[in-house]
Amino acid sequence: MTERQPNEASEYSRAPAILVVDDDTSICRYCAKALRNVGYQVIDTTSGLVALDHLRHQVFDLLLTDIKMPEMSGLELARQARALNPGLAVIIMTGQTTLETLREAVQQGVTSYLSKPFEIEEMRLTVAQVLHQRAMVLQKVKLEAIVHQLELSSAFNRTLSLSELCGEIVRVTNSEIGCQFGYFLLQQPDESPRLLMGQASHPQLNEAGWQLLQETYQQQQPIQTTLKLAEADHNVITFPLRVGGAMIGSALFDYTEALPSAQIEGMMLLLNQAAAALNNAQLFTRVQEANSRLQELDRLKSEFISITSHELRTPLAVVLGYGIVIQERSEPPIRTYLDRLVESAQRMKEIIDDMTHLRRLDTRQTELQVEPIVLDELLYEVIDQMHGLAQKKSQTLSLATPPDALCTLYADRAKIALVLMSLLSNAMKFTPAEGMITVRAWCETVQAVPYEHAYFKGTLQPGPWVFVSVSDSGIGIPESHLQRIFERFYQVAQSLTREYGGTGVGLALVQGLVALHNGHVWVQSEEGRGSTFTVALPQRGL
Ligand code: ADP
């Protein structure tokens, strides 16, 4: 027969501790030895008084005691022992078992009994059963405590505001240990520590309290002591605040009645939940702060652009106006210089116009003047305007669609022209000399979602749409940049190298103007081979 090893039972993390008491020395030693042999930690004594002394200094799991002893009866010993350790299991060994003895035994919290004389195996079996039952009860109590703590801590998820959360933690702690105040010291690397109070009405924390919180943070252990605050002595307890093994701070609460170790353990569990909630609230606050800083920066940037473009517009109009007047009347070589001056001033005007458009889009000041546009006419007009530039770079600019295949579009003519010119101007800029720039257009009633075409893929509302694409045989765009090129001021090449010039505003404007028409822009590109930008616009407008 295999003996049941106490350590076999996974419910005990260490070998259970047993106190054996019997005034009969041989029975006492015999039982103790038999239990030791199977791995229990055993202390044995023939005296009830000595047994009580052991119980005061060591935590036992089980008391195995004779009932009839000269100094003190086994039942009296059981009563006093359970007063010291309420979770202690007790087995009494008795010669005659009367109903009266049994009733009294139950009253003293005796868990089981052994009738003398007993077989050693019977004794071991009873001990193992009682310890198993006790472990089950302890586990249940522990689980109930965890559930209770989790229920309490659910209150911590109600808010992401740090001050409200601290108030909530103190409220819950008050229901557990009756605290009146609570302080939280949150510490983050590279940041100065932050002290938060459970309520605004709390007394100010003094230096001794601050030291206690620091000590708890460093030692990562609770500390129980007294603290003089607002002229009164308080019993206080501190807890480390830990999230996933990392310390984030410490907390301090007062309490009124002595805290048993089980309650302190429960509080540590609760404070773990509180620490997680505090950490989340801290992260949330930081993200909010960073966000508002970014918004402020964005506002300042827009303001700067708006002021600068407004202030540049007037003097530039004067330069351009007089430049053109003198240009018309001048002779070479002055005329050549003036051509360059007017050209540069025109370029400056375009940049300022782009900025102004973008600003108007931001402030929702852009209004659409929708009118019927005969698509092929608009395309010829735009291509015509850009032809000169293409010729300068010996590029071929062509429309690859038969005009009769095209329809009438309802949109803002000037703004759609601006969009197409912007795309064409990029295509020319990022295509080397003698490259090809091709404009395609088609009108189609979208029936299946998503819509798929060689030059456009995306989710479009079913209905009639107009598509215009600009393809080039230029440098292309690396895939990792494709998502970002529509952001304002974003350029693939480092702006400092200024290889291609530009401001990074064009595509942001294209996207803004197309979105205003409820349309979409799609880009497809291959590095070193070229890019295609396609604009999809609802044919019948908004
Ligand atoms: P800009 O042309 O003034 O730099 P855009 O907003 O029009 O600003 O374009 C943003 C960036 O997208 C450009 O700097 C370039 O890196 C890339 N890009 C736009 N169009 C093309 C294109 N046709 N071919 C290659 N890269 C392009």
TrEMBL record:
Segments forming domain Response regulatory: 17-131
Pfam (any one): HisKA
Keywords, comma-separated and alphabetical: Kinase, Phosphoprotein, Transferase, Two-component regulatory system
Gene3D superfamilies xrefs: 1.10.287.130, 3.30.450.40, 3.40.50.2300, Histidine kinase-like ATPase, C-terminal domain
SMART domains membership: HATPase_c, HisKA, REC
The protein's Enzyme Commission number: 2.7.13.3
EC supergroup of this enzyme: transferase
Modified positions (4-aspartylphosphate) in chain numbering: D66
Annotated Histidine kinase domain residues: 307-541
InterPro entries associated with the record: CheY-like_superfamily (IPR011006), GAF-like_dom_sf (IPR029016), HATPase_C_sf (IPR036890), HATPase_dom (IPR003594), His_kinase_dom (IPR005467), HisK_dim/P_dom (IPR003661), HisK_dim/P_sf (IPR036097), Sig_transdc_His_kin-like_C (IPR004358)
Molecular function per GO: kinase activity
Catalytic activity: ATP + protein L-histidine = ADP + protein N-phospho-L-histidine
Name this protein carries in UniProt: histidine kinase
Organism: Herpetosiphon gulosus
